[in-house]
């Protein structure tokens, strides 16, 4: 048995049957990381010794059964704060930052005795779609090492795709979970805004950021969501609603589900094989007894425009605190304190981060607020209304996750706008704050995974997971495996 | 040409909450640097603010006390600028939807009532402190970061330094009365910034204003406005334009000077704080808050005049501080002699407080002690003169006034027989006085009383002594 | 939409970022092209549309005014690039 290939629920079953111990499980993942990570460069910080200790403790205290995630190893995106463990957001600015606090999600996973293997790579401050914007390393797509894994949560996607972790957490501001999940052939879930606490998630754009999951299948996504969702008094935007078990209705199938597809979606720029995967998904839903409904969404371009304004404006403010005074990087030479600010920030941030800070600062600056930020927020209202209309006609909406499969490393770095366009299908979802999951369907001719995105109304996680699970059954993507 | 001085005020007051506005760090003043901090007020990555419920409660109370309209909907915004005392590089404040709008405060100027408009009151967080004690740099103390503030903005309705001081005192009193702030100017828990401009009398258009900071007392505030308006008038008379700038008052030198202008233009890029949700308050909640407001100085003063028959001057003075009023009321409850209590509180007590560098809140005795002292006088146990000595001892010695009197053997001679003997002897020894009285010079009674007091070391009950003197002298004359 | 080098310089000051001449030109061009794209926002009529400042229809999230445990001075300063006497230290600030 290849332990590392197993899903969470499969691993749990084997652990319960005593087929291996937690310690053996972690050792197996540690070996896999040591062997594979040098090829894909997903980990920024490995915590393997601590992980082994933790596993030993779980075994000796007989805690493998204490929760579904106990003893299960995972990886964390490096913008999720871990007390006393370096957290960098893949930025030179935080190259040495050790937080004296933990993110709410990390605390929850610790309390469930899930085992943290390490912190994984990302685009600096989660700004990017390829993980090329990391200040430390470029992560490679395990399906083709010359291509990007997507981003910004590229390390999380690769950790799961390359079987270096049973699951991983990432964050999604405009597609940063779903797009890399799509490009790496894993399941990526972005929950409704407010369902998972943002406390301890290093902010990019506060009104859009949401923590979510990378898993090997849809059932695992439901399992991990169960663990991380829930009200947190430390996050004012955390929803105070009763907890749900997302696994209960998961396997109901697609019978009777109304699946929306876009009647007018702009097929320009969408890869042929992605269109084929869409057609096959429609057919699969029909076979499973779902009803296909054509719906209208008119605002892809505007959603992307609004996204860049709102996200960058918030980012320009959220990232102002990196000034070299209290923590993180400080320039070595400066003439006075103002010069220290300039040098620290100019040297500490990468070019994409600076570009977005500039755009956001411009959009908020005197005389432009109404034309950009306010307009963006108004368009946001229009988009929310548009989705409300869509979900009056269908239970879930299906679109491609990404217009193309993984692109070459370096291919888009010099064209920010082209890079931004790769978020077309994912960005409107964050603008509306609604949930979506990307699942892998098949490989294109180059052997790269194609993801399909299932979108739901606010708090429609149960429905999108149910639909995604049904679709997953018909594709059985997991028969494919990257050769590493 | 005659000029008119126009003043508007921005008042920052720290609220009397236990914890900061967005985190559970204590707000206590004066502890060692950087011991009241947490990831939230340190502006560490990824942490989030949660609004302190009492900040809204206190701010609403302040708004109601200053006759503002409380907004049913208000929200927090970010004000973005870089400074080493501002960890997040934005101050979470309120921009276009403040908690309170459009109030008014009546002030008394030379016996006339004058309304001063309150533009708005909003809630926000305080910044940290920069300490310049290092030889080769500046040190940052984050303790004060996130201490809740209200900012009260007045209309430019104030004319001149005296009105400004009266207005500032009124605001301070009101905030103190409502328990919103402890208003300690010396600790910076209330800070007054004034905007001063001058214009030709009779004209409407406001002149260019300057903003003045570092006003650490009401006296400084009054002096600074006097100085600044004079400076502006001199500039204008020379034909120089007034430059809009921020100036720092130096109370020792008695001058203001322009603060080094910041390198950048002021472009704060306000936008709605995405990490906090809006504040909504229903009309019922506002009504309830209003009903729970404590009695304000104006009402208290009127009541003192009606209920205790105090002269306006006394009532005004006693109600000018919440603690003084409280001391008065507690004393009057025990000893129903309001005028006497007021006298003590207006004359002797302040003098001792000043000498001992104390305040009414740190006074070393309790209202029941003052009540006891007054009762001792009323019962004839001690004279008013002795009472002043007792008061002095009350500031330095333990024990109740009665104990102080006994310890010092200050009780008045109440024994009629003993006093009779002493007086008879004095009358015997002063035949001239007797003859003076008999020839109609009543002043001689005074001399005899003085002799009695001298003989009894002031302990003779004056009324009793007078009565006996008259009896003894009358017998003698007859 | 074109952005001038002066505008880039103004904004960079607000953001406390410094660019050399070449970087400024490049930034002007890149921001210009993104803003061209952003102009598509104007295709949406928003004349009677309220801005969505918060996705959640939630208000009045408060905490009780109860004192918690602050960080020790040592932990608060643990990440500081420079410190003195229990304080964060920066180059001299004149006011």
UniProtKB/TrEMBL annotation, chain A:
The organism of origin for this protein: Pseudoramibacter porci
Protein name as catalogued: Glutamyl-tRNA(Gln) amidotransferase subunit A
GO biological process terms on file: translation
Keyword Transmembrane: no
Database matches in PANTHER family: GLUTAMYL-TRNA(GLN) AMIDOTRANSFERASE SUBUNIT A, TRANSAMIDASE
SUPFAM superfamilies from the UniProt entry: Amidase signature (AS) enzymes (SSF75304)
Alphabetic keyword roster: ATP-binding, Ligase, Nucleotide-binding, Protein biosynthesis, Transferase
Start and end residues of each Amidase domain: 24-465
Enzyme Commission number: 6.3.5.7
Function: Allows the formation of correctly charged Gln-tRNA(Gln) through the transamidation of misacylated Glu-tRNA(Gln) in organisms which lack glutaminyl-tRNA synthetase. The reaction takes place in the presence of glutamine and ATP through an activated gamma-phospho-Glu-tRNA(Gln).
Family: Belongs to the amidase family. GatA subfamily.
A single GO cellular-component term on record: glutamyl-tRNA(Gln) amidotransferase complex
Pfam families the UniProt entry points to: Amidase
InterPro entries given in the database record: Amidase, Amidase_CS, Amidase_dom, AS_sf, GatA
The keyword Electron transport is assigned to this record: no
Protein origin, superkingdom: Bacteria
Catalytic reaction annotation: L-glutamyl-tRNA(Gln) + L-glutamine + ATP + H2O = L-glutaminyl-tRNA(Gln) + L-glutamate + ADP + phosphate + H(+)
Subunit structure: Heterotrimer of A, B and C subunits.
GO molecular function: ATP binding; glutaminyl-tRNA synthase (glutamine-hydrolyzing) activity; transferase activity
Active-site annotation: 77 (charge relay system), 152 (charge relay system), 176 (acyl-ester intermediate)
Automatic annotation (TrEMBL), chain B:
One Gene Ontology MF term: ATP binding
Domain Asn/Gln amidotransferase: 326-473
First-level EC class: ligase
Gene3D superfamilies: 1.10.10.410, GatB domain, N-terminal subdomain
Keyword rRNA-binding among record annotations: no
One Pfam family from the record: GatB_Yqey
Listed GO biological process terms: glutaminyl-tRNAGln biosynthesis via transamidation; translation
Reaction equation(s) it catalyzes: L-glutamyl-tRNA(Gln) + L-glutamine + ATP + H2O = L-glutaminyl-tRNA(Gln) + L-glutamate + ADP + phosphate + H(+); L-aspartyl-tRNA(Asn) + L-glutamine + ATP + H2O = L-asparaginyl-tRNA(Asn) + L-glutamate + ADP + phosphate + 2 H(+)
Keyword Heme: no
The enzyme's E.C. designation: 6.3.5.-
InterPro entries: Asn/Gln-tRNA_amidoTrfase_suB/E (IPR017959), Asn/Gln-tRNA_Trfase_suB/E_cat (IPR006075), Asn/Gln_amidotransferase (IPR018027), Asn/Gln_tRNA_amidoTrase-B-like (IPR003789), GatB (IPR004413), GatB_C_1 (IPR042114), GatB_Yqey_C_2 (IPR023168), Gln-tRNA_amidoTrfase_suB_CS (IPR017958)
Function: Allows the formation of correctly charged Asn-tRNA(Asn) or Gln-tRNA(Gln) through the transamidation of misacylated Asp-tRNA(Asn) or Glu-tRNA(Gln) in organisms which lack either or both of asparaginyl-tRNA or glutaminyl-tRNA synthetases. The reaction takes place in the presence of glutamine and ATP through an activated phospho-Asp-tRNA(Asn) or phospho-Glu-tRNA(Gln).
Subunit text: Heterotrimer of A, B and C subunits.
Family listed: Belongs to the GatB/GatE family. GatB subfamily.
Annotated protein name in UniProt: Aspartyl/glutamyl-tRNA(Asn/Gln) amidotransferase subunit B
Source lineage: Bacteria, Bacillati, Bacillota, Clostridia, Eubacteriales
UniProtKB/TrEMBL annotation, chain C:
EC numbers on record: 6.3.5.-
Keyword Metal-binding: no
Keyword Cytoplasm (UniProt): no
BP terms from Gene Ontology: glutaminyl-tRNAGln biosynthesis via transamidation; regulation of translational fidelity; translation
GO molecular function, one term: ATP binding
InterPro entries, sorted: Asp/Glu-ADT_sf_sub_c (IPR036113), GatC (IPR003837)
Keyword list, A-Z: ATP-binding, Ligase, Nucleotide-binding, Protein biosynthesis, Transferase
Top-rank EC class of the record's enzyme: ligase
A Pfam family: GatC
Catalyses which reaction(s): L-aspartyl-tRNA(Asn) + L-glutamine + ATP + H2O = L-asparaginyl-tRNA(Asn) + L-glutamate + ADP + phosphate + 2 H(+); L-glutamyl-tRNA(Gln) + L-glutamine + ATP + H2O = L-glutaminyl-tRNA(Gln) + L-glutamate + ADP + phosphate + H(+)
Assembly behavior: Heterotrimer of A, B and C subunits.
Family: Belongs to the GatC family.
Functional description taken from the UniProt entry: Allows the formation of correctly charged Asn-tRNA(Asn) or Gln-tRNA(Gln) through the transamidation of misacylated Asp-tRNA(Asn) or Glu-tRNA(Gln) in organisms which lack either or both of asparaginyl-tRNA or glutaminyl-tRNA synthetases. The reaction takes place in the presence of glutamine and ATP through an activated phospho-Asp-tRNA(Asn) or phospho-Glu-tRNA(Gln).
Name of the protein in its database record: Aspartyl/glutamyl-tRNA(Asn/Gln) amidotransferase subunit C
């Amino acid at each position: 048995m290849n332990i590392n290939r197993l899903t969470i629920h499969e691993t749990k079953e084997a652990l319960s049957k005593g087929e291996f111990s937690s310690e053996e499980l972690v050792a197996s993942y540690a070996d896999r990381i040591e062997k594979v990570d040098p090829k894909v460069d997903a980990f920024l910080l490995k915590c393997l010794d601590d992980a082994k200790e933790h596993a030993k403790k779980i075994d000796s205290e007989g805690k493998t059964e204490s929760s579904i995630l106990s003893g299960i190893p995972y990886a964390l995106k490096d913008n999720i704060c871990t007390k006393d463990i370096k957290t960098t957001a893949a930025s030179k600015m935080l190259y040495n930052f050790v937080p004296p606090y933990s993110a709410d999600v990390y605390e929850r996973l610790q309390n469930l005795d899930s085992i943290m293997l390490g912190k994984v790579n990302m685009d600096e401050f989660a700004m990017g779609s390829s993980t090329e914007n990391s200040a430390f390393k470029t992560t490679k797509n395990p399906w083709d090492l010359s291509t990007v894994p997507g981003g910004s949560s590229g390390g999380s996607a690769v950790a799961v795709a390359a079987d270096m972790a049973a699951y991983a957490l990432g964050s999604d501001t405009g597609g940063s979970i779903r797009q890399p999940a799509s490009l790496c052939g894993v399941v990526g879930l972005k929950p409704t805004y407010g369902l998972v606490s943002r406390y301890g998630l290093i902010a990019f754009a506060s009104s859009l950021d949401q923590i979510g999951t990378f898993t090997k299948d849809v059932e695992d996504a439901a399992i991990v969501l169960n663990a991380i969702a829930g009200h947190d008094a430390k996050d004012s935007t955390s929803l105070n609603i009763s907890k749900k078990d997302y696994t209960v209705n998961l396997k109901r199938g697609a019978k009777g589900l109304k699946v929306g597809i876009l009647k007018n979606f702009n097929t320009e720029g969408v890869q042929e094989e992605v269109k084929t995967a869409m057609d096959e998904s429609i057919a699969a839903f029909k076979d499973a007894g779902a009803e296909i409904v054509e719906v209208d969404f008119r605002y892809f371009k505007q959603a992307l425009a609004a996204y860049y304004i709102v996200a960058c404006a918030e980012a320009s403010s959220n990232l102002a605190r990196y000034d070299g005074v209290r923590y993180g990087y400080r320039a070595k030479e400066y003439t006075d304190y103002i010069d220290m600010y300039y040098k620290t920030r100019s040297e500490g941030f990468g070019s994409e981060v600076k570009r977005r800070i500039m755009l956001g600062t411009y959009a908020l600056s005197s005389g432009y607020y109404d034309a950009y930020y306010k307009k963006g927020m108004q368009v946001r209202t229009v988009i929310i209304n548009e989705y409300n209309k869509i979900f009056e006609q269908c239970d879930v909406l299906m679109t491609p996750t990404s217009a193309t499969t993984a692109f070459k490393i370096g291919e888009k770095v010099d064209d920010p706008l082209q890079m931004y366009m790769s978020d077309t299908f994912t960005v409107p979802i964050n603008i509306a704050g609604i949930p979506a999951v990307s699942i892998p369907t098949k490989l294109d001719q180059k052997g790269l995974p194609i993801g399909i995105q299932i979108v739901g109304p606010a708090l429609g996680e149960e429905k999108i997971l149910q639909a995604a699970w049904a679709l997953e059954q018909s594709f059985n993507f997991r028969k494919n495996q990257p050769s590493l | 040409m005659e000029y008119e001085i126009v003043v508007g005020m921005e008042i920052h007051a720290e609220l009397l909450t236990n914890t900061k506005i967005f985190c559970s760090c204590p707000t206590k003043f004066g502890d060692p640097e950087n011991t009241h901090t947490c990831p939230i007020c340190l502006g560490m990555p990824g942490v989030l603010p949660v609004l302190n419920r009492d900040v809204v409660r206190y701010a609403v109370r302040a708004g109601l006390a200053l006759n503002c309209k409380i907004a049913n909907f208000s929200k927090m915004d970010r004000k973005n600028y870089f400074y080493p005392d501002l960890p997040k590089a934005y101050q979470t404040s309120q921009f276009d939807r403040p908690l309170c709008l459009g109030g008014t405060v009546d002030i008394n100027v030379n016996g006339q009532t004058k309304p001063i408009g309150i533009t708005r009151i909003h809630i926000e967080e305080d910044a940290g402190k920069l300490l310049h004690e290092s030889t080769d740099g500046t040190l940052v103390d984050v303790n004060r970061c996130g201490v809740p503030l209200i900012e009260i903005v007045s209309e430019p309705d104030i004319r001149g330094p005296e009105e400004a001081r009266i207005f500032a005192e009124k605001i301070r009193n009101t905030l103190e009365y409502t328990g919103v702030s402890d208003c300690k100017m010396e600790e910076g828990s209330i800070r007054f910034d004034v905007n001063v401009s001058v214009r030709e009398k009779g004209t409407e258009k406001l002149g260019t204003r300057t903003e003045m900071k570092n006003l650490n007392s009401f006296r400084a505030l009054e002096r600074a406005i006097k100085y600044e308006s004079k400076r502006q008038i001199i500039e204008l008379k020379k034909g120089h334009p007034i430059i809009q700038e921020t100036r720092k008052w130096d109370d020792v030198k008695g001058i203001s000077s322009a603060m080094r202008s910041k390198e950048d233009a002021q472009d704060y890029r306000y936008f709605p704080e995405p990490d906090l949700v809006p504040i909504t308050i229903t009309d019922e909640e506002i009504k309830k808050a209003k009903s729970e407001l404590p009695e304000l100085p104006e009402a208290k003063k009127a009541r003192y005049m009606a209920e205790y028959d105090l002269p306006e001057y006394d009532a005004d003075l006693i109600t000018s501080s919440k603690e003084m009023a409280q001391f008065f009321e507690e004393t009057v409850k025990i000893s129903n002699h309001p005028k006497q209590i007021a006298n003590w509180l207006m004359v002797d007590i302040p003098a001792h407080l000043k000498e001992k560098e104390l305040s009414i809140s740190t006074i070393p005795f309790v209202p029941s002690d003052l009540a006891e002292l007054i009762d001792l006088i009323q019962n004839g146990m001690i004279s008013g003169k002795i009472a002043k000595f007792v008061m002095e001892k009350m500031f330095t010695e333990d024990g109740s006034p009665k104990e102080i009197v006994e310890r010092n053997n200050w009780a008045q001679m109440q024994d009629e027989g003993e006093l009779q003997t002493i007086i008879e002897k004095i009358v015997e020894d002063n035949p001239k006085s007797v003859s003076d009285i008999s020839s109609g010079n009543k002043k001689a009674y005074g001399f005899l009383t003085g002799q009695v007091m001298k003989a009894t070391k002031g302990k003779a009950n004056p009324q009793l002594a007078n009565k006996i003197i008259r009896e003894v002298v009358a017998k003698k004359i007859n | 939409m074109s952005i001038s080098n002066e505008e880039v310089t103004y904004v960079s000051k607000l953001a406390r970022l410094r660019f050399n001449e070449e970087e400024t030109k490049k930034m002007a061009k890149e921001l210009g092209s993104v803003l061209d794209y952003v102009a598509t926002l104007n295709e949406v009529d928003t004349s009677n549309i309220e801005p969505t400042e918060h996705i959640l229809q939630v208000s009045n999230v408060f905490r009780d005014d109860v004192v918690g445990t602050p960080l020790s001075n040592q932990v608060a300063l643990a990440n500081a690039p420079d410190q003195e006497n229990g304080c964060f230290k920066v180059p001299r600030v004149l006011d």
